[in-house]
Amino acid sequence: MSFIAKQYENLEVSAMVAASDSATLVKKMIDLSLGDHDIKTDSRIVKAAAENKIIGHTMYTHPLGDENFREEIIKYIGKNYNHKLNLNNIMVTIGAGNALYVSLKAVLNPGEEVIIIGPYYASYKDQIKGVGGKVVVVNTSEENNFMPTINDIKEKITKKTKAIIVNSPVNPTGSIYTQQLLQQIYDLSVEKKLIIMSDEVYTSFVYDNNKYTSMLEIDKNLTNTVVIKTMSKDYAMTGWRIGYMIASLEIINVARYINDGIAYSAPTIGQSGSIEALRLSDEITTYLRKIYDERIKYGFNRIKDIKNIHTRNPQGGIYLFVNISETGLSGEEFTNRLIKKGVLVLPGNIFGKKYNNYIRITCNKDINILKEAFDKIEELCNF
Fold first, then answer.
1. Which pTM does this prediction carry?
2. Where would one find the signal peptide in this protein (predicted)?
3. Strands 113-118, 90-93: parallel, antiparallel or unpaired by DSSP?
């Protein structure tokens, strides 16, 4: 007899879970699969968090988050996006995933549809289904830099459509939404009475003078938008598990109610460290961006010299989304063969069924290690 809910009876192990298990089981594996850093959190952040705990700040914070942290978020958002918030527009969460889940739960009725843009972050589908929603995919193509047109999105809207998730810079492609396209999506959301979930996780990783626009710069009154951010990527704080959502008071109040039964509040120590991180934001993000810019460029240039594969130069993010169709292998076949050589990447089909001829490479290792990994990729392609 099984006690498992019907929706999970035929559960497949996700590629990300499988990748994590493979990296643990295989010794000396070069893990370029998950979006984690090899760079330690800045010692000043660690010190500030530790000192805060030593003096006794070890209890729950307010369910919306530590007030001092939310004040720093207000300063950060005002400085970077010219957007004025108040404390009650912000809820601190256990990473961005927690923020997205409670946001979707707050706005979706059973059977309502959420539009996502392929290739998409793999967890979107699970989160939408998990709260009773239906996933609708707008596929994009490499020829258009993996960007949708506004008509592509319009064609997918039905009477059941409730929300659109946008993610810029995009995981996995590194493409960045233009201000014009975001404005068009916002105007469409107003016309059709839709909510935009703007997943803004890689905002510090923008290269080569490309311009990044936040939905906070488009929807000044948070009329139709929930913005989701995290400390994980921009500050090398993945293990601290701190994210936050910015939304109207109406949505924040419901999200807080939902989160009370899940986590109540985010980790106090993570919020303490995040206060210092935002105070050091310019310095830390500049440092990390420089490192990843070098890594991305190294990987891109290596791929240009490897036969049977190619990729577009990403505008942002920490990934390379690589077309392997000329090898004659699927993403899963390529990934499995590469594992045998000691390198772990992700197959493209976890970012959408259409992308079975791609792999995603995370450039999260030192150049010397990346060289070893790309040498092995080149060996695999020379057959």
1. 0.95
2. none
3. unpaired
pLDDT grade for 5, boundaries at 50, 70 and 90: confident
Residues sharing a CB contact under 8 Å with residue 281, sequence separation 6 or more, in sequence order: 76, 234, 235
| Structure confidence at residue 14 as a pLDDT band (50, 70, 90) | low
Which of 99, 77, 78 is CA-nearest to residue 165?
99
Residue with tokens 């995981």: 171
Contact by Cβ (8 Å): 332, 355: no
Rounded to the nearest angstrom, the gap between the alpha carbon of residue 26 and the centroid of all alpha carbons in its chain is 26
Q: What distance in Å separates the CA atoms of residue 171 and residue 218, rounded to the nearest whole number?
A: 21
Q: Which tokens go with 148? A: 């949708």
Report the percentage of the chain scoring pLDDT > 70: 96
Please, where are the H alpha helices in 108-206?
123-130, 150-154, 179-192
Domains of the chain: 6-41+283-381 (3.90.1150.10), 59-279 (3.40.640.10)
Q: Does residue 11 register a pLDDT over 80?
A: no
Q: What average pLDDT does range 280-305 have in this prediction?
A: 98
Cβ–Cβ contacts within 10 Å for residue 297, how many? 15
**161-167 and 113-118 strand pairing:** parallel
Place of tokens 């006690």: 3
**Tell me, what's the pLDDT at 8?**
79
> What are the contacts of 123-130 at 24+ separation with CB within 8 A?
123/97, 124/100, 124/165, 126/14, 127/97, 127/100, 127/101, 128/104, 129/7, 130/101
Give the integer Cα–Cα distance in Å for 160 and 304.
44
User: Residue 224 has which token pair?
Assistant: 């139709």
- Per DSSP, which regions of 168-274 are E strands? 195-199, 225-230, 243-246
Distance CA 69, CA 36 (A): 23
Tokens coding 308: 């049977």
* pLDDT (0 to 100) of residue 4: 81
